[in-house]
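PROTEIN DATA CARD
Card holder: Orn/DAP/Arg decarboxylase 2 N-terminal domain-containing protein
Chain length: 462
Origin: Orbilia blumenaviensis
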Amino acid sequence: MSSRVVKNAPYYQSQNWPGPFSISNVSTETDDIIARHIRSIDPTNCDIYGEDGFWVVDFAIIRNQLEIWERLLPRVKILYAVKTNPDPQLLEHLAKYPGKIGFDCASHGELVDILSLSVPPDDIIYANPCKAPSHIRYACNKNVKKMTFDNVAELYKIKANFPDAECVLRFKVRAPEAGDDPSEGALYELSKKYGVTIEYSREILLQAKELGLKVTGLAFHVGSGQRNVRSFGQHIEEAKRIWEIGREVGYTFTILDIGGGFMYSNFEKAAEAVNAALDQEFGDVIGRGEMEVVAEPGRFVSAPAFTLVTSVIAIREEREGVDGKRMVYLSDGMYSNINAAMWPGELTFPTVVKGKRADGPKSTLPVSSASSDSGIEIDEGDQGSVDQEGGTATLITGDLQEYSVWGPTCDCNDVVMENALLPKGIELGDWFIFKDLGAYATSMRTTFNGFRTSHKTYYINN
Ligand SMILES: Cc1ncc(COP(=O)(O)O)c(C=O)c1O
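Structure generated from the sequence above:
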């Protein structure tokens, strides 16, 4: 079967990514765990929530990501963006690299979680330019000094609640313009919400000066899932211009925060762009040890390590009595752990495995892998090794047919894939496997409609 590359193909299956770090080469332990779990669930008599989805988290992949970062961006310290995935074991793991890995927290709650792991306050940046005053007071009590700002009202709040804070000015990245190729930009633009323009930077720095506040550096974020690696270099150049403006106002900045937005499909190229721009714009200050460079990666660290497995709880024909498109309902959907379905190109293409059969009509159809028009690319080489012997937890392969795939809530927007070619013969009790869902899935899920989201999680190689 030929692989069909469709619009907004997900970054993790890009052919540009060098093979050795492809996740299918890292471990098949995940597959064994999936098979064991599936064999243990009998939908005809399982306990309440027995058919719920579950996660497998592979720490070998996390370590691999950190090693790649260290090799390609040795001058840039990671401040992991907690919002991306605050899994407690993941945070605990990252906190074991004191001094080497710090954290980007954006709220009181995230600060509490990270400080409870005995992370030194100096290894934290409170990276939210618009904070509640009581949250600033909490940061003050805990001596978390580094915090971003991008407006004058925030400066007054900081002055009133934490006059000794080390303020970091967030500036705006260039917004996409008409005519820009949408497949070249970020999956999520952040600049319409945060950041000052270069033109306004002098004015706000003068105000900070007048208030007697310390401004110690600059921050930007090129947008999450940035496919245009030139963006990193362009914004480091812009940082240099604001750096000079800061000098004219009377500030000597000591920190440059280049934000998140890193993906692993283009990480090598992004790192090249960052290193070249750092050398050109800040080579001398970095060389003299007068400036620390930090970044706030989220997706790059956590996405590839998390696999979601979720079961088929209902199935029907789209048109009654017609042997055509089928509708599959999963125990997870857009409001819970498959919220990646909301954004084109975010969701990996699933593989489907047989479960213990639930009570229901049996399919007699032969059962291959698949394709879709929903922004998902199929990775032919990644057929999985769940079990090729047949029976429960066997990969379902063979001829394809059209499906739509839905979440469990009653909202008709709760759709995972509207048009997908999946193997024939999917039945009640079968399981869908979605790899690489470790970014913004668990952190953004809801219990809408009363569905539980707190799934069992298997951790391996920790
Ligand atoms: C301030 C800030 N830093 C870091 C991140 C993490 O971005 P990414 O997951 O693209 O690396 C985000 C994501 O929204 C963010 O808002």
